[in-house]
Amino acid sequence: MGKLTRDFYARDTLTAARELLGRYVVRRQADGGYLCGRICETEAYIGRMDKACHAYNYKRTPRTETLFAPPGTAYLYLIYGMYHCLNFVTEEEGEPCAVLIRGLEPAGDVQRLALFRYGIPLDKLSAYQKKHFLDGPGKVCKALDLTRAQNGLDLTGDELFVWDAGDAVPDFHTSRRIGIDYAEEAVDFPWRFYF
DNA sequence: TTCAGGATGTACT
DNA sequence: GTACATCCTGAAC
Question: Which helix (H) or strand (E) holds A128?
Fold first, then answer.
């Protein structure tokens, strides 16, 4: 029960990715409003051995620099020119590893989530829009009002963090990761977790 | 319900 | 110049 501490992130990335399931991402905006969701889909990226990781083989570029930061740092980057992805840096500082947040269940002020996600009130959403509310990494960032401006944020602070409500980790499925077909042998690593 | 195609900009070769 | 840890739309079934 409580905000996840740096110790939570300073562990094996696969363990962290599994144990993030069922916890709540909480985002406090500049105006004091809150946006949050329950994590239901994650993927692990482990730079020392993973060709799908931006920092594979410890490759340092301006973009990947955040992956070398201390555990419990937010890694946000632009993808396909128009979407963002939210990750949490794991393991010890200098090991470029992270957990990608691929999906959330709406929680808290869902009305506010709808406005950031679609720009229209909750009661105007179609059944299709509700069904696919937060089931993708770009959607997560849009709904939580996150961009590269939040890259490097410390998750032990108040602006962006993960809340453990004390629930047990739910039963979950394991599979290959999405959208990394270029990653040779790493395409088959079972590092995606979801319920 | 599934599928193809386009949008869009940055990082890196 | 090419690829990219994606999403939306519209058409076909």
Answer: helix A127-131
**Per-residue pLDDT reduced to its tens digit, A43-92:** 999 999 999 999 999 999 999 999 999 999 999 999 999 999 999 999 99
Q: Which nucleotide is nearest to A83 (CA to C1')?
A: C6
To the nearest 10°, report the CA torsion of A120, A125, A129, A130: 110
Helix, strand, coil % (nearest 5) of chain A? 25, 30, 45
Q: How many Å from the CA of A69 to C1' of C4?
A: 23
Indicate the pairing of strand A160-164 with strand A34-46. Answer: unpaired
* CB distance under 7 Å to strand B: residues: A 54, 61-64, 78-82
CA–CA separation, A48 and A125 (whole Å):
43
pTM of the complete model: 0.96
**A194 touches A59 (CB < 8 A):** no
- Sorted by where each starts, the structural domains of chain A and their CATH numbers stand as 2-194 (3.10.300.10)
Per DSSP, chain A holds a count of helices (H) and strands (E) of 5, 9
